[in-house]
Specification:
Elements: E1 22-26, H1 33-45, E2 50-52, H2 70-83, E3 86-91, H3 94-102, E4 107-110, H4 112-115, H5 118-128, E5 135-138, H6 145-157, E6 163-167, H7 184-193, E7 199-201, H8 203-207, H9 213-222, E8 227-231, H10 249-257, H11 269-309, H12 317-333, H13 338-361
Parallel strand pairs: 1-2, 1-8, 2-3, 3-4, 4-5, 5-6, 6-7, 7-8
Bound molecules: phosphoenolpyruvate and manganese (II) ion.
Length: 362
């Protein structure tokens, strides 16, 4: 059961120079003092004031670059001092938190592999108790909304009010285009449960390559995300981690300037009147769908009863194939996406089979 959370709005964090998107940018990893300083200087020049860099890197395979460690925190601290940046990094243990606190880190985030682990989250939450630094929680690697919420609750229970989320997509066996499948509906559900929670999108880890960053960032703006965390490196092709997905600072500013940022509301009276009318029409369409589904289920029950009386099994595969074929032809006529309609009708079929199964078992 999800607990209520006491969340400080982004305006209280004093981090971002609005307007949206509130942007956190910097390299995947801190690699050397020169790379950290050069990237920070260039990002500062294009107006970025919150700087990220990974210090301890959770790599899939051993033997890859696993981060510069505490030495890297010193470079970050130098960038903070020299360019007046807020600095942030990923923490995955209590030890990381203590090192960050010693080195003036202004904000931390929990990576996707950490927020999936309640033991680690608890340990980090306890280490952060009594500090005032904001904590962003990336979604767990798998699309488990409760696990994500649980991580936020663990932090909030320790009195940490400056909490926010980063949606970075989910690992998936079937996703081909993106490194991590966006599954926007998971983030949208979280947002509707905690509308006051600051919401960031990390298009870099979602995309896995530069080509999709603009489009994913725009989708995040369309969904009303407050901000973006984007990887940016002074020389992406030489990056020691995530080279394919990083942008130069000037490519980053180009991306940000190309975004259309949507407002969450307006005081335009005419807009409200029109949207209210359209919503009323949507509501009556929904009512009609439900009425039709109810009628369909009644008939399905009758069929179940009739099959039972005649001792016939529930599934006749060819019948379902025929239904689907004719439904998809109609979907084309009505301009409806075939995948969407296949999902809807499979769900309807499943519910019918379940109901007939119940009748046959009575
Ligand atoms: C990162 O931000 O560099 C990172 C490792 O991200 P994630 O936890 O989303 O994989
Ligand atoms: Mn990365």
């Amino acid at each position: 059961m999800a607990a209520r959370m006491d969340i400080a709005p982004l305006s209280e964090w004093g981090f971002f120079t609005l307007p949206r998107p509130c942007t956190i940018a910097g390299p995947c990893s801190a690699e050397s003092e020169d790379q950290v300083m050069d990237t920070a200087r260039q990002l500062r020049q294009v107006g970025i004031n919150v700087y990220r860099a990974g210090i301890w890197k959770p790599r899939t395979h051993p033997g890859c670059f696993e981060g510069a460690g505490v030495e890297g925190l010193k470079w970050m601290q130098k960038a903070k001092k020299e360019f007046g940046l807020k600095i942030c990094t990923e923490v995955a243990s209590e030890k990381h938190v203590f090192e960050c606190l010693k080195h003036g880190i202004d904000m931390v985030w929990l990576g996707a592999r950490t927020s999936a682990n309640p033991f680690l989250v608890e340990e980090i939450a306890e280490a952060l108790r009594d500090t005032d630094i904001p904590v962003l929680v990336k979604n767990p690697v798998n699309p488990d909304l409760d696990l994500w919420i649980g991580a936020l609750e663990r932090l909030n229970r320790q009195g940490i009010r400056k909490i926010g989320v980063i949606h970075r997509g989910f690992s998936s066996l079937t996703e081909k285009k993106y490194r991590n499948s966006p599954e926007w509906q998971v983030a949208v559900e979280l947002r509707s449960r905690y509308p006051e929670m600051p919401f960031f999108c990390d298009p870099s880890h979602m995309a896995g390559c530069r080509d999709y960053l603009q489009d994913l960032s725009q989708q995040a703006m369309n969904l009303g995300f407050d901000g973006l965390m984007i990887e940016s490196h002074c020389d992406p092709s030489c990056a020691l981690s995530d080279a394919k997905q990083q942008l130069t600072p000037s490519q980053l500013i180009e991306l940000l300037e190309g975004l259309t940022v949507r407002d969450s509301d307006t005081d335009n009276q005419e807009y409200h009147e029109n949207i209210d009318q359209l919503r009323t029409r949507i509501d009556s369409c929904d009512e009609e769908i439900l009425r039709t589904l109810g009628a369909r289920m009644q008939i399905s029950r009758k069929i179940g009863q009739y099959k039972k009386e005649n001792n016939i099994s529930i599934i006749q595969a060819s019948r379902w194939d025929n239904i689907l074929e004719s439904v998809l032809k109609s979907a084309d006529i009505y301009g409806l996406d075939r995948d969407f309609i296949t999902k809807v009708f499979n769900a309807i079929h499943e519910a019918s089979v379940r109901e007939q199964n119940r009748i046959l078992s009575e």
